[in-house]
Amino acid sequence: MTENGDKTPLVVLEGVNKHFGSLHVLRDINLTISRGEVLVVIGPSGGGKSTLCRTINRLETIDEGTIVFDGRPLPAEGKALARLRSEVGMVFQSFNLFAHKTILENVTLGPIRVRGTARDVAERRGMELLERVGIGAQASKYPAQLSGGQQQRVAIARALAMDPKMILFDEPTSALDPEMVQEVLDVMIGLAQEGMTMMVVTHEMGFARRAANRVVFMAEGQIVEENTPDEFFTNARTDRARDFLSKILTH
C-alpha cells in the first residue's frame, strides 16, 4: 500500500456523461484522483469501467461534463492532445505491440518520435525499464517470441518510457493465462509502491486489496460505491456491491 503524500488532484471528473447511441454508458460521474493514488475500478462487465478509463486520455469523448487533468481541461485535438497522451500512459487488455519491431524498439519508439529523445539515450532508458519489469534479456526479440505475460510487461515498460504523470490500466491481465497474471500484477504493485498515480480497471480482487488506496465500484454506468479496500471488501454498504462481491469471492 502506498502512502499518498501529495493530495492535490491530478484528475477531476465532474458531471461526466457518455452515450453510445441509446446506451447511456456513463451517468453523472464525479471522481477525483489524487497524485500518487492507486484507484482500482471494479464491477460487472458492461458497467462503464473501460469507457471511464478511456475518457481520461480522450480515447473516448464525453457528451456532458468536464475532465481536468493536471489543472487543465482535456484538449480536443492537435499538439495539446498529443502532449496529454504522452503524460497519461495506457496499458490495454491486448498488448498493442508492433509485431515487426523488437521489444527495445517498441519501448523507445514513443520517446524518440514524440519527445525527440536521442536514440542512444532512449535505448539506455529503455533497457533500464525492461530490466525493471524483469525482461531485459528479451530486448532483441520480437513480440511473437514472448509469452503474454512478458508482452504485457513490455507494454508497461513502454508506458513508463514516456515518464507519464499517470498510467491507466484497462483490464491488463484479463487476456493472460492464469499462471502469467501474477508476474504482471507484481510489476504493477511495484509501481504502486513507488508512488505512480494509477487507475486500474481489473477483476483481480487480490490486487485491489493489496495495492489500492481506494476502490470504486461501478455498475450500469454509475459509481455505486467507493471506499478503502478494507472497508469495501469487509463492509460493502450497498446491496449491489454486496451481491457482486458474493459472486466473485466465493469461488
TrEMBL record:
Enzyme Commission code(s) on record: 7.4.2.1
Lineage: Bacteria, Bacillati, Actinomycetota, Actinomycetes, Streptosporangiales
Pfam hit, one: ABC_tran
The name this protein goes by in its record: ABC-type polar-amino-acid transporter
Family statement: Belongs to the ABC transporter superfamily.
Organism in which the protein naturally occurs: Streptosporangium becharense
Molecular function terms, GO-annotated: ATP binding; ATP hydrolysis activity; ATPase-coupled polar amino acid-transporter activity
Coiled coil: none
Keyword Nucleotide-binding tagged: yes
Enzyme type, top EC level: translocase
Matches recorded under SMART domains: AAA
Keywords assigned: Amino-acid transport, ATP-binding, Cell membrane, Hydrolase, Membrane, Nucleotide-binding, Transport
InterPro entries, per the entry: AAA+_ATPase (IPR003593), ABC_ATPase_HisP-typ (IPR030679), ABC_transporter-like_ATP-bd (IPR003439), ABC_transporter-like_CS (IPR017871), MetN_ABC_transporter-like (IPR050086), P-loop_NTPase (IPR027417)
